[in-house]
Amino acid sequence: MKFQSPKGVSEYFPPRSHAFEFVRDRLLAPIKNAGYQLLELPIFEDTELFTRGVGESTDVVSKEMYTFEDRGGRSITLRPEGTVGALRSVIEHGLDRAGLPVKVFYCGSFFRAERPQAGRYRQFYSVGIEAIGSDDPALDAEVIALAYEGFYGIGLRKFRLEVTSLGDAQSRKAHRVDLVAYINSLNLDEATKARAQINPLRLFDDKRPDVAAMMAKAPRLLDYLSTESADHFAKVQEYLSAMGIAFTINPLMVRGLDYYTGTTFEFVHEDLGAQSGIGGGGRYDGLMESIGGQNISGIGFGLGIDRALLAAEAEGVVSSTDFAPTLYLIPLGQSAKAVAMKLAHELRDSDISVEVAMGDKALKNAMKSADKSGALFSLVLGESELESGNVELKEMSTGVATSVTLSALVPTLITRTSKK
Ligand code: HAM
């Protein structure tokens, strides 16, 4: 019997998993530098948390959740996104009682029963942050900048940032009146009408050409912003410009989740075809309260690691072969093996990556493994090297060997790798 991974999941194994790790860590680096702290969350939650928090008009809740009954008869759902679980944790543990804003990040797998295609998976990986409890527009700009820096840090250049504002309650109320009147004047099927009743904004995201054509003429929320919302949005733009972050305003943007208000944004990559959204997020004014917390706003994002990796590969800025060990160590004979083990232990302690040839291979075979590992250097440790205390450090790309004393190995490797 041969088993296969479930349909539509993304899975990373060597050598590509190195590139995955690289992308994930680059996305996380600016977040950590800005003082966001780790939330390690469960991957399943009460189903109701998502129906309430994410919204029943969304595809995510209505069609894509992996929901099941656990052994205690509770309805459980594999997390389709990270925000509401993060907020649930913040509320449950009172993190919002100990100084605001609360700034947290998380990273892991998420589950949506979507139709699988390139860049769209049923289990995917995402890095997210949430900053809760401050209305400062500088926070919006900071959050957007952290996503931008993450993508930029991977080496991505062919992406653009789109921003819009969904306004405050007052703006949305004024817009809704005109939007609903407009939608009611259209000739729509019953299912679409029902969706529009729960959230009329959702229709802006309808991909059917006839509906999209009708919605292109619909009243736009951006034209209904209250003075406060317009000021807030103007400040966000001012801060982004001050940071040198280019953006375009997309008044037709609709995010796939219902909780957004105010500043909303998406990062779109040019080379990814249909699944071009590499990250997105925004503010959510009423969400904390709707799931039992204080009436405070928050803002955050989710960045798709799978898609950022595809984008990095498309731009040629990451290669799975870039992640080889610094040194491949080949002991010849039993006494050399113990010394090699000790040496590898010390080198790793100095943050130098080392692989040791295992299985007492003959030199020729061991050198083949060294080649295959992609190591920058190799070193053979035999009886004569042990006696003299001198080793030949061979640079694999050129084949040039340099004589080094064992005691000088660590500093030598540090200097020679830092030049690379
Ligand atoms: P989202 O846009 O639904 O936002 O997901 C975040 C990112 O995850 C997307 O931009 C995309 O790159 C990636 N993604 C989503 N679905 C899939 C999929 N099926 N396969 C591969 N990648 C996917 C959220 O989830 C919000 N929680 C973000 C947020 C945080 N908003 C405020 N705070």
Automatic annotation (TrEMBL):
Q: Which Pfam families match?
A: HGTP_anticodon, tRNA-synt_His
Domain called Aminoacyl-transfer RNA synthetases class-II family profile: residue spans: 22-331
Question: Which PROSITE patterns does this one have?
Answer: AA_TRNA_LIGASE_II
Q: Name one GO molecular function term.
A: ATP binding
| Database matches in CDD domains | HisRS-like_core, HisRS_anticodon
What GO cellular component term, any one, is given?
cytoplasm
Q: Name one GO biological process term.
A: histidyl-tRNA aminoacylation
Q: Which InterPro entries match?
A: aa-tRNA-synth_II, aa-tRNA-synth_II/BPL/LPL, Anticodon-bd, Anticodon-bd_dom_sf, His-tRNA-ligase, HisRS-like_core, HisRS/HisZ, HisRS_anticodon
| Reactions listed under catalytic activity | tRNA(His) + L-histidine + ATP = L-histidyl-tRNA(His) + AMP + diphosphate + H(+)
Q: What is its EC number?
A: 6.1.1.21
Write the record's keywords in alphabetical order, separated by commas. Answer: Aminoacyl-tRNA synthetase, ATP-binding, Ligase, Nucleotide-binding, Protein biosynthesis
Top-level enzyme category? ligase
Record's keyword annotation contains Aminoacyl-tRNA synthetase = yes
As for family, the record states:
Belongs to the class-II aminoacyl-tRNA synthetase family.
Question: Cross-referenced HAMAP family, in alphabetical order?
Answer: His_tRNA_synth
The protein in question is named histidine--tRNA ligase
